[in-house]
Amino acid sequence: MEKINERELLEYWIDTYGNLIFSICFQMTKDYFEAEDLTQETFLSAYRNHESFDGKYEKAWLTKIATNKCLDYRKSRQAKISIVEEQTLLHTPSKEASLEAMMEESEVLEQLDRCCSQLKPPYNEVARQYFCEEKTVEEIALAQNKNKKTVQTQIYRAKAMLKSLWKKG
After folding, report:
1. Which residues make Cβ contacts (< 8 Å) with residue 25, sequence separation at least 6?
2. CA diameter of the chain
3. Distance of CA 49 to CAs 20, 35, 55, 88, Å?
4. How far does CA 83 lie from the centroid of its chain?
5. Sign of the CA dihedral running 28, 29, 30, 32
6. What is the CA radius of gyration of the chain?
7. What is the pLDDT along the chain (169 residues), one digit of tens a residue?
8. Distances from the Cα of 166 to the Cαs of 108, 111, 159, in angstroms?
9. Which of 68, 107, 137, 155 is 20 to 30 A from 82 (CA-CA)?
10. Is-above-0.85 flag for pTM?
11. Closest to 74 measured CA to CA, from 34, 113, 29
């Protein structure tokens, strides 16, 4: 088996499991921005500890890290974890639950889009592309003919503004 470098490994995990890890974090926190932060923390933790990982059951390992990150987050906010929520994570959702989750995600994206439209240029477009359309920093930089670091800074600033707007909404 070909040896993969650490950067490629991290990119592979994010590309392969990014949506799954975000979904877990969002289900547990019910907060889009906290879920994004916890998703990043999950991948950073996995990256830092990948040498101690035996390589088996990668998906289960990453989801366990995400779950633990969310549990730590909830404990830090002194939230109580109910047995029902834990059972929800362990069982495959029904079709009704899946439909409900899809509708909830749609509502979240609509609210996020409304918040993005309230931002001033260039933050409104960068935020919409990054958070709503799920484009990468590289894709946004290329499309807007901007430096990657400029786009990263704009996303960071837009995120702070969106957090403020989200709490008001």
Report:
1. 34, 35, 36, 38, 39, 42, 66, 69, 70
2. 51
3. 20, 21, 11, 27
4. 24
5. negative
6. 17
7. 345 677 788 888 888 999 999 999 998 888 888 999 999 999 999 988 888 887 788 888 999 999 999 888 887 765 444 444 554 555 555 555 566 666 667 777 788 888 889 999 999 999 888 888 888 889 999 999 999 899 888 988 888 888 888 777 6
8. 10, 8, 10
9. 107
10. no
11. 29
Token pair 């040498």: residue = 51
Residue 34, both tokens: 């906290």
50: which 2 tokens? Answer: 């990948």
Tokens of 128: 């919409």
